[in-house]
C-alpha cells in the first residue's frame, strides 16, 4: 500500500501562508530602514511610510491568521487522525495510511506508541531547526550591541535594529523551539521508560500513564504554536525512521 496523508494538505497551506508572512516581515524591516535613510526626501519618505504601514497591517493580519486559525485547524485534524488510527474509529471522512509505523492493535497502547513516535520526530526536527534560529538570534543581538558601542551611530537606526530583535517574534520563536525540543526529548525518554518497564501490557496503570504523557505532548505542541519545517522533516525522515525502528527493536515492540 502507498502512504496516504491528507492531513499534510492542511500543514502545506500553513507553510505557504507562513512563508508569505515571513516575506512581509522582512519587507517591513527594509521599509523601516528606508524611512530612516530617506528623511531628506519628503515625497519619497512619505511614500515609503505609506507602504510601511500597509505592509505592517498585512503582516499583522496574516501572522495572526496563521497562528489563530490555520495552524490550530491543522493540529486539530492531526489529532483526529491520531485518535482514528489508535482506536480504529473513523472520526472524519479523510484518510491517513501508513503514517504511523507500529503494528499494535487498536488500543491506548497503540495511541501511546503513536505519540511516542511523534515525540522522537518532533524532537529531532526541532533540534535541527533551533540551530539556525540560535545563529540568527545571536547575530542580531551582537549587531545591536555593536551598534550601541559605536560612537556616532544614529539612535533612530539603533531603534530599528532593536525593534527587529526585541519586538518581533525572533527571540520568542527561538525560545519556543528550545522549549518544544527539550520537552519532546524528555517525553520521549519517559515514554521509553514506560514501554521498557511494561512492554505492551495493557493495564489500567499503564493506560493512565500513557494518557498523561499523550496529553502533555499535545498540550506542549498546542501551547508553543510552532510550525515544524516540512523541509527539515523530509531531510531527516530516513534517518529518524531508522532510529525509530532501532528503538522498537531495543524495546521488543
Key features?
two-stranded antiparallel ribbon; mainly alpha; 7 helices; 253 residues; 80% helix
Structure, described:
This protein has helices spanning 8-37, 42-87, 108-149, 155-166, 170-198, 204-224, 230-251, and strands spanning 4-5, 96-97. The chain has 253 residues and is an all-alpha fold. A two-stranded antiparallel sheet has the order 1-2. Helix 3 packs antiparallel against helix 5 (170-198). The longest helix has 46 residues, at 42-87.
Topology:
Elements: E1 4-5, H1 8-37, H2 42-87, E2 96-97, H3 108-149, H4 155-166, H5 170-198, H6 204-224, H7 230-251
Antiparallel strand pairs: 1-2
- The residue ranges in which pLDDT falls below 50 over 5 or more consecutive positions are none
Helical content class: over 70%
Alpha-beta classification = mainly alpha
Mean pLDDT: 83
Beta-strand fraction estimate: under 5%
